[in-house]
Amino acid sequence: xxLKRILKPWPPKHLKKIYQQVPKYGMVLDVGCVGFRQVxxxxxxxxxxxxxxxxxxxxxxxxxxxxxxFARADLNQEPLPYADDTFDLVVASHIIEHLAKPVEFxxxxxxxxxxxxxxxxxxxxxxxxxxxxxxxxxxxxxSLSFYDDPTHCSRPWSPQSFHRLAKYYSCEPVExxxxxxxxxxxxxxxxxxxxxxxxxGTLFMWTVWQxxxxxxxxxxxxxxxxxxxxxFNYYIPH
Length: 238
Description:
The protein is of the alpha/beta class. Helices cover 30% and strands 21% of the residues. It starts with a helix and ends in a 17-residue tail after the last strand.
């Protein structure tokens, strides 16, 4: 029995579902591609046919997997360096909270997504504000509080805020929720004390994240009739 896989299922089920919807030989962009996690998730989902692209603030060209197309960009200073309507899937996991203009970034991700394509956003939720800072293993850069990461310059996100932003851009919110695990909610009285006693920062952080829903996510579908960036339209439903 692989205890590590049980405590931290990989790849995440909702991302596996997304990859099954990408057309054959589709193009995938990973915004903030350090670690090249989307390549691994796609392959573990049985999608070896996809063409992978990535953009990051750091220069990752030398470590990129074979066939991976990398571009370097500072997204606080410049837009995503791709043409309109390029990708079948755009993944921006834990990126939007690092950017000074998150609403504009959300729209730019939609701009480079093909009509009818999918965009996935994930970010710390408002529940990450409920917690104190990481109490140990500081050199591992674990995050317990939203404020543990000094490069967070924006705001936390809730499923509701993600949902509203998708609607403001006239897009379909396919699914919006917190990331959590029922297993962790059942076994945390055991795993949390073990993590604290053993000073296992990874287990401590992952348990807390999965119990409270530390991160929120949304899957967005771009309208099939809209090319380029959809217009932003703020409104209040009647």
